[in-house]
Every structure is written in structure tokens, then in C-alpha cells.
Amino acid sequence: MTTSPPAGAGFPLGFAGTGVRRLALADFRSFATLDVEISDHIVVLTGDNGAGKTNALEALSLLSPGRGLRRAELADCARKGGGGGFAVSVELSGPGGKVRLGTGLEPQPEAPPARKFRIDREPAPSIRAFGGHVRVVWLTPAMDGLFTGPAGERRRFLDRLVLALDPEHGARVNAFERALRGRNRLLEEGRSAGDGAWLDAIEREVAELGVAIAAARVETLARLSALILAGRERDSPFPWAGLALRGEIEALVGERPALEAEDLFRGMLRANRTRDAAAGRTLIGPQASDLQVRHGPKGAEAAQASTGEQKALLVGLVLAHARLVEAASGIAPLILLDEIAAHFDPLRRSALYDLLANLGGQIWLTGADAATFAELESRAQMLRVTTGRMAPLA
């Protein structure tokens, strides 16, 4: 199914950000096939719950490193009743011209499906090759409890912020987690005393990767904090956030050169082998740090703010990060906002739409009620999603 843009529609004059001009899906979630042309830098998807709005955003999120905005196993993205694979393809246009990116799972005889990547229909080695063409940031309802939930969720959120700036960060985090599992296994086997050579080697790897991860987090937060403080407005409907990172290794990185920080971290690991063996896990390292967020104008912990204030604070934080991605990479990111406006009052909703209209990147929004987006009708491409289909909103 191909859906063309309405007559007269188009990207705003002078729009220089990266934008999707065409989205094609095959056997992805609820879409057996989809081929839709995109005509504006704000795209609004409306439709009933379960129609597939979030599925479309998830497909776009797979253009960035990681497992997408749902963090799903890729095999789960394949349409039930399909052939076991799926394909996501976009045509992008921006300052560097047009490019076509594609990714998906391809079934293989007598083997699990393999993920593939293509740029202008030519094979690409990995998702990191897409980083020179597109960056993606998102906000979903699952993130609403970020400030009150477990520290692990905030670390994951922070690593997503870093990953949008540094596509290599995900590989470092994955390697670090593998090294930690290896250390924990050696400790469980009781090698902390009699066979220290294996632990020495793996702790060297843990220290090198851990310091690199902590340094990337510290740098990203410093740059994001500077951008937020430079543009903060006390009376903004989306309050500015105060950011800090709590963790022993992050503190080391902020005070010592990298090599010295690695040596000190390695010494901590060695000194804590017995304690870590008893605990069944490594207790010190960037896997134990926590992102601290404050409601800037009130000077209070974000967790103590009202539900509405937390949502507004999170929106402001994600949009500030989008501006940082553009400033750092030269690529205005795709901004995916799932069910973004449902819980805002009319004044804050109107302020949000004005803010989005002035951002450099392409913005995709979803919501069940088309009336929620009435103010955007003259400034956005309005599409209605039904099961497996997408068409202009009548």
C-alpha cells in the first residue's frame, strides 16, 4: 500500500534537518506491507489503541544502535503469520542529499534469521554505519516512571543519550557486561585466591571498558547540562533539569587521567574479590552508578515532583538532548514521541506544539484522539493508522 502526501504539502522552506521522505515496511509487527510517502517535518499518527502507531515508531527506532524503543528481541518484530523475517526501509533527505537505509531479519535455511543492513541497497557491515546518515531519539509512555523507578532504568536511559552521540558506546557497554559476567563466574568458581592470573586479565578488561563508559557518560552529561543551562527559562512549561551522575568510577574519571583511573579501578576490583564473591556480583563500577535529576526551577529531586511535572521535565530533557545531538553530530535527529500529549493540559499541549515546530529535526507523534492534535493540522502531515494500513486523515 502506497500513501502519497496531500497536494501542496511539503517540508518547510529552508528545512535542513534529516527527514524521512518514504517509509516502507514488510512483515513488521502488524504491517504485512506498507509504503508511505512523508511530506512534512511533523508527522502525526492517530488511530485506535493497538492499530500499530507505536509499531511504526519502533520501525524507525531500529535505524539506531540497540534493540529499538521497545527493547524487543528482533525476532518478536516479525509479523505473526509471516515468513519469520521483516524489512524496514526509509528514504532520507537532508543536507547531505538523499540516501536509502534498510535493515531487517532475513530467514536462513537451517539457521536463525540474520539481521542485515543496507545503504543505498548495498550491504553495510553493521548498524553503526547508519550513524553518518541518521540519529534517533525517543520518548515513550514506558519512560514515565524514570525518576521514581530503579537506577538500572536511569542508567539505560543515560546510555541511550550517550549512544545517540557516540555509536560505539553500545559496543563498549556490551563488552563490559560480558567481561563482568566472566569475572563473576570466576569468583563463583573460587578462583580469587589460587588462580589470580585469570582474574587479573579479566579485571584489566573490566577496568579499561568501565572507565571508557564512565568517561563517555560524564562527558555527555556535562555537554547536556551546559546546553540546558544556556537556554533555561524559569517559567517554561517544560522545566529545565539539573543533572548529576553518582558513582565511584565516574568520580574517578572526573578527577584523574584515564590511565590512572583504570589503575585505581583495577585495584578496587582486586581488593573486593572476596566481598564480590559473597555477593555474587561485582559491586563497584559503572554498572552501579545512578543518574540524578532535579527539577531545576524548584531545586527539588525529580522523584518528588508531581506526575505532570515529571512528564514535563522528561519532555524538556529529551528535547534538549535532541538539540545536543544536532549540535554535536551535525545531524538533526528523528524525534519519536509516543502518546506524548494525552496527559498534558491544553496550555502545556499548545506550548509543546510550538516548541516542536521550531526544532530542526523531523518529529513523529502518536495519539489515539485526532482532536488532541487539532492545533497541528496546518503544520503537520496527519495520518490515520488502522490495522496494517496508514492513510491521510480525512
From TrEMBL:
InterPro entries: DNA-binding_RecF, DNA-binding_RecF_CS, P-loop_NTPase, Rad50/SbcC_AAA, RecF_2. One of its GO terms (biological process) is double-strand break repair. GO terms for cellular component: cytoplasm. Keywords: ATP-binding, Cytoplasm, DNA damage, DNA repair, DNA replication, DNA-binding, Nucleotide-binding, SOS response. Its main location: cytoplasm. HAMAP family: RecF (MF_00365). This is DNA replication and repair protein RecF. The gene is recF.
